[in-house]
Design brief:
This protein is α+β, with helices and mostly antiparallel strands. It contains four helices and nine strands; from the N terminus they run αβαββαββαββββ. The longest helix is centred in the N-terminal third of the chain and has 17 residues.
């Protein structure tokens, strides 16, 4: 039975304590051409606002639900139930820049959506429901779809200068939901796909 379960779940990564735990989240990947187009934009923003940690282009994604440090089997179980619900593909398009603020200081810089905000919220609600059904605590805040570009280095935030206009990117069809593992690295976190759920 244990061997059969191991084959179904695949190899379980071990943390330093020898336990099959992962720091995981569900997200939608960006098309590669969108990443490449945003790489130059992010480099310019980094020069203009060094008080922020700008996301490497290869890490860009739309987060649906952060799980935190959990057992790999728990994360896989949530992914199984989300896949069984048969989520559908939908169209997305990125919008303008915005920021989560504390007073006049910005803490998180992001790109919003001009298309697909309702559809991504439905998918996020499905993931949230299955996460809570698995025994995890519900999110305390309403879901706000966005593409995180940067986080302030200081805990209180930082003043955000005028940023250039982001590149105009074509809409795309979201066909995959990914369960990612976040691994700490010298240059920041590295995101590794653990599971890919096809959106029909």
């Amino acid at each position: 039975m244990a061997a059969e379960r191991s084959r179904r779940l695949g190899p379980v990564p071990l943390d330093k304590a020898g336990v099959g735990r992962v720091r995981a989240f569900f997200g939608l990947p960006l098309p590669e051409e969108h990443r490449l187009a945003l790489a130059g934009f992010l480099a310019t923003c980094q020069q203009l606002a060094p008080e922020f940690r700008w996301t490497p282009a290869e890490n860009l994604h739309l987060t649906l639900r952060f799980l935190g440090q959990v057992e790999r089997s728990l994360a896989d179980g949530i992914a199984d139930r989300v896949a069984a619900a048969g989520p559908r593909a939908f169209e997305l398009a990125l919008g303008g820049t915005g920021a989560f603020k504390r007073g006049r200081l910005s803490r998180v810089v992001w790109l919003g959506l001009s298309t697909g905000d309702r559809e991504i919220a439905v998918l996020a609600s499905l993931v949230e429901g299955e996460t809570v059904s698995a025994g995890m605590e519900a999110e305390g805040r309403p879901y706000h779809p966005h593409l995180t570009l940067a986080r302030a280095r200081g805990r209180e935030g930082a003043a955000l200068p005028q940023l250039p206009t982001p590149p105009a990117l074509e809409p795309w069809r979201a066909r995959e939901l990914v369960l990612y593992r976040s691994r700490p690295g010298r240059g920041g976190s590295v995101y590794e796909p653990l599971r890919t759920i096809s959106l029909g």
